[in-house]
Amino acid sequence: MHFIAETSSNGVVERNFTLGEITGVLWSPASGADGAPLVLMGHPGGLHKKAPGLVARAHYYVTTCGFTVAAIDAPGHGDRPRTPQDERWVAALLNARAAGEPLGPIITDYNISLTERAVPEWQATLDALQALPEIGTATPIGYTGMTLASAIGLPLAAVEPRITAAVFGGVFVYDALTEAARQITIPIQFLLPWDDDEIDRQSGLDLYDAFASKDKTLHANPGTHHQVPWHETETSAHFFHRHFTPATT
Amino acid sequence: MHFIAETSSNGVVERNFTLGEITGVLWSPASGADGAPLVLMGHPGGLHKKAPGLVARAHYYVTTCGFTVAAIDAPGHGDRPRTPQDERWVAALLNARAAGEPLGPIITDYNISLTERAVPEWQATLDALQALPEIGTATPIGYTGMTLASAIGLPLAAVEPRITAAVFGGVFVYDALTEAARQITIPIQFLLPWDDDEIDRQSGLDLYDAFASKDKTLHANPGTHHQVPWHETETSAHFFHRHFTPATT
Lengths: 249, 249
Hints:
The structure is a homodimer. By secondary structure, chain A is an alpha/beta fold. Helices cover 41% and strands 22% of the residues of chain A. The A-B interface holds A 192, 194, 205, 208-209, 214-222, 229, 231, 234-235, 238-239, 242 and B 192, 194, 205, 208-209, 214-222, 229, 231, 234-235, 238-239, 242.
């Protein structure tokens, strides 16, 4: 893991890094970072590790909760090149959307391919982060991210025992995700955009139902997956805080 | 409003009161009660204003949020006598449950009758509470309660503009409740027990859908309406706090 730039403002230290082909960023509290809980934050499809909404949530987690937040670009996103096949999928998505044709089959193939590449990348990133003295192997780890970040995050959480709490939602559902949900037993907060015109509401209810977790909460809100209200960021912070902190009662 | 007993422990002042035939209780912070936000708390059917779960939530609101909480017994509950017709409904419910027969028609008739009596009682209680110097007419007011407390609370919130935020859920749905939901525009948090064997899941999803509120969040959790996790109490406190406090951003 090579740190290539560091800035600091408003109590948040931002460090860009590379790890092989992976491009990422780490946000830490300017003070009290040692042993802070770590949240892995994924970005939606078509966006990147420093999308404004993601940065706002990361800063909130750092400044309000004292968490450290790590984000990486998904393959072919942000600072990373697309493969020729990625280019074909993106073109097919744009064409299908313009023509009013179903996006599902294309999203399924593209997301499965991205996930095959991204899961080992998150695991390698986690290895490197835990090798940092300020993080180490004792700090609790969560994962959060909707849409593509959930498509990647569900299979990641299913195979990665270091992740002990996760926030998912707003994701196009295919069989591999349902299978992953059935293997997940950690506490889950699942966001369901109630009025998504691209993702069937019932598929989200069914995916929530599929999680094997005993502690799983579904949060539905009016709007599409582009319109998740800010209070869900606050609620997710309470969710992580609750699971990162040993119970006192 | 006549206060008939006062006790104080762990920072909570508890005052029992009567108002005509209404029997109630007011929990206030031992310090800082003046102008504290007011939460009206209903109890489930068959229970009463000091049911242990209700008292625990009320104490949490008082000690953690600085709210004042008021609860009253529904007609025929707690310290209040049942009418002969109430007795017949209760007997019919017990018989139907024992025989494995549908409870819906009985619950509908009983809850509609209780609501016709309870809504004006809550409004009279609110009048009397606002006449207390420590409450007054400027403090924000919320309502919370599941099952019977939602059956009463929805029609109450539909006609009572002093209530500006509410938490409902776990309620047996009939047409009058759906009609009330369609008239409600205040922020709502709606709790849906995911595995309720007495209340159809889809009816809860449909009721959430019916609220006219732009700010409405559905929270589903595994379990029945007897098993709502404690973190929903914490989340409801954040919900009220968010709506009671003028936005800073």
